[in-house]
Design brief:
It is built from twelve helices and 15 strands. By secondary structure, it is of the alpha/beta class. It folds into two domains: about 290 residues, Zn peptidases (Aminopeptidase, 3-Layer(aba) Sandwich); about 110 residues, Alpha-Beta Plaits. The strands form three sheets. Strands 1, 2, 3, 4, 5, 6, 13, 14 and 15 form a nine-stranded mixed β-sheet that branches. Helix 1 packs antiparallel against helix 3 and helix 3 crosses helix 12. Bound molecules: zinc ion. Zinc ion binds next to loops. Keywords: Hydrolase. Belongs to the peptidase M20 family.
Length: about 425
């Protein structure tokens, strides 16, 4: 591979693919919605598999719905280089999040074919199932199945109507009972590289064309269950009442205050519910859900400890009894330095100076980094907008990202 070799993607194919996927959306939802395991998601993945086959890959769909295409390398016993992302969206989402990485990964295979290059390592192209999560509260479904971290408890998790994650997977034509068989072996994988839009404003602010990620945020989710006392709203004095919603209000502001004090940390409340919708009753219980994110595991632990302490303070202020339950903690994923250096070199070979940055959004790379050295290549998001219909990245930026992805695969093929 040389600097001068033409490894640019075929822009027309990228544009056509993007247009096709943009048409496979649920018109009953706002934005560009192709929600995981929906009819549109199934149709999108069928199209992705077909494009993989046309690119010369052999395809299979595993028990959770991951679409996997293989291009055998000249040394079939060498571990595979994996490229991929996800083609599902959040409800009301955009047309670039995940999609750019799936189109880009297929285009890597197409570019290699055009250039007459057969890599030493096999190339594995993946469209991970349901990265964005579901009302059952499980994100990164496909990559977690591949990493072996999708538990039976999570498959049994239900939404408010009693539909479980296993039901969703079955409804899309897959086999939740066979999820154990989706697991990949670390020994079979040499590297994981994912192209993605930044979903934030940093690259645009810095004037950066190509980003190479240093690490991906860790996430801790919580449920704060608050017990107060059901009383008459008119006859219970303000100094005697035990109001769980007042405790919850303190909890919401505590999330904001704690997260704002900690560098790159962020904290968000999802939902606040109470036992009574009436204004003439002090409700007996309330429930608050939320999450903290941090680039450091120690930072995440610190946020947890501070929130636990704040809940106690709020209890003493409002005469309530709170329980904080922490959900599955995704540790921050550190991208592999050697592989990231190859991505920086690949960017330079394509004529771009790579900008190193932290990702406050989570990705399938978090799960993959437990299996193989992993890195991510970012392209800018206009105004930093994402998970909304306005999400936009210029096609020229997408093409730049795909060329850097292709070159990173070839650098990795030579170096690993
Ligand atoms: Zn994404």
């Amino acid at each position: 591979m040389t600097r001068s070799q033409n490894l640019a993607p075929e822009g027309d194919w990228v544009q056509e693919g993007w247009t096709h996927l943009s048409g496979l959306v649920d018109t009953d939802l706002p934005g560009w919605s192709r929600v995981g395991f929906s009819e549109q998601d199934v149709a999108g993945r069928d199209w992705v598999a077909q494009q993989m086959r046309q690119a010369g890959l052999t395809t299979r769909v595993d028990a959770v719905g991951n679409v996997i295409g293989m291009l055998e390398g000249t040394n079939p016993s060498a571990p595979a280089i994996v490229v991929g992302s996800h083609s599902d969206t959040v409800p009301g989402g955009g047309r670039f999040d995940g999609i750019v990485g799936v189109l880009g990964a297929i285009e890597v295979a197409r570019t290699l074919r055009r250039a007459g290059i057969r890599p030493t390592h096999s190339l594995m192209v993946v469209d991970f199932a349901n990265e964005e999560g579901n009302p059952q509260g499980v994100k990164l479904v496909g990559s977690r199945a591949a990493a072996g971290t999708l538990s039976a408890t999570e498959l049994a998790a239900a939404d408010s109507e009693g539909t479980t994650l296993a039901d969703l997977i079955t409804g899309a034509g897959h086999q939740p009972d066979a999820v154990a068989g989706c697991r990949w072996k670390a020994d079979d994988l040499a590297a994981y590289v994912e192209l993605h839009i930044e979903q934030g404003p940093v690259m645009e602010e810095q004037g950066a064309e190509i980003g190479v990620v240093t690490r991906v945020c860790g996430i801790s989710t919580f449920v704060l269950d608050i017990e107060g006392r059901r009383d008459h709203a008119g006859t219970t004095s303000m100094t005697k009442r035990s109001d769980p919603l007042c405790c919850a209000a303190d909890g919401i502001l505590a999330v904001q205050r704690i997260a704002a004090a900690g560098g790159d940390s962020v904290g968000t409340v999802g939902e606040l519910t109470s036992a009574s919708p009436l204004t003439n009753v002090i409700p007996e219980t309330a429930r608050l859900t939320g999450e903290f994110r941090s680039p450091e595991l120690a930072g995440l632990k610190q946020l947890q400890a501070e929130f636990d302490a704040e809940a106690k303070v709020a209890d003493s202020r409002h005469r309530t009894r709170s329980t904080v339950t922490w959900g599955h903690t995704d540790a921050p994923a550190i991208m592999d330095e050697q592989l990231s250096a190859l991505a920086v070199r690949a960017a330079s070979a394509a004529g771009h100076e790579a900008f190193r940055l932290y990702s406050g959004a989570t990705h399938d790379s978090v799960e993959m980094s437990a299996l193989a050295p992993s890195t991510m290549i970012f392209v800018p998001s206009r105004d930093g907008r994402s998970h909304c219909p306005e999400e936009w990245t210029d096609l020229a930026d997408v093409e730049r990202g795909i060329e850097v992805l292709t070159r990173t695969v070839l650098e990795a093929d030579a170096a690993l």
